[in-house]
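If you are new to this repository, start here. Below is one unmodified record pulled from the training split, so you can see the exact layout before writing a loader.
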Amino acid sequence: PMGEMAIGARIGDRLFSLPQVAAMILNELRRYVCDYLKENVHTAVVSVPAYYTENQREAVREAGVIAGIDIIRIINEPTAAALAYGLNKEYDKKVLVYDLGGGTFDASLLEVFENMFKVVATGGDTFLGGVDFDERVVEFILSEYERKENQILQCDSVITQRLKDAAERAKIELSSKSVAQIDLPYITISGGNFKDFKTEISQEQIETITEDLVDRTIEVCVEVLDAAGVQPEQVDSVILVGGQTRMPLVVNKVSRFFGKAPTKGVHPDEVVACGAALMGYSLGTDSSVRLIDVLPMSIGGRQPDGGFKVLFDANSTLPSEREVGGATT
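And here is the target side for that same chain:
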């Protein structure tokens, strides 16, 4: 914690705000780009989860200012993914982008016609992602330890980090294998001696302990389709984005819900970056890429009685304006 309200990171004995941390990452990325292109780059298109609030987007802009990078456009990740998928193709399709990343989940329904990308509805959960799946596996390891060793594993920060690393490795392994071995040498000290712990987890077990997380993503898809007035079978293509979508359970549940297998032609880790790059390129040319996006959540203000007055409904097409008491918003 940094101060009463702010959140940040402590590195060594220094405190950094989140925009400062993000600025370090942007600077590192710029360094790679400048080395590769052999020229100085100081403008950027930055992609963010569609369900980011205005405050979170402002923090991204602030990170750009700190890093000395002019962020000329903030683009929503699902929109970027659809751009990489559909640009310059003869499409007239309804596309659902299902984006399950490390820390966030987004679902957006787009209509794609040649070089026009229209977001119809978007939804998400900024506190649901791959780390939650890892956490479930950590809980599984701890319960297995207690069951086999008849004692609770006392965790400090180093042991906790080792458990998280082992959990993530096992999860990744279970995307292509039916059983993963979990090996934790010297995980604790018992009776003055170092103690190892080994166990295994099956694909069936990981599916049981994480099924509710995947179900939560499907609930968001239901809300997005309801907002758009579209049935699952009317969606032409489903694009999976984010490393967590490699999990067979995710692919199976998405396939069952939409009644079709997701599109294979996109790279879940790279498609958003490719889309943002295409957007950056089109801004510097006369190319006719048109993006029509929507508000991810309602915007309004507090009334004198404490109630919330909605000015712009969620999924309103952008740009949008309202007149309130003679003033245009």
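Two things worth knowing about this chain: The mean pLDDT is 89. The first helix runs from residue 18 to 37.
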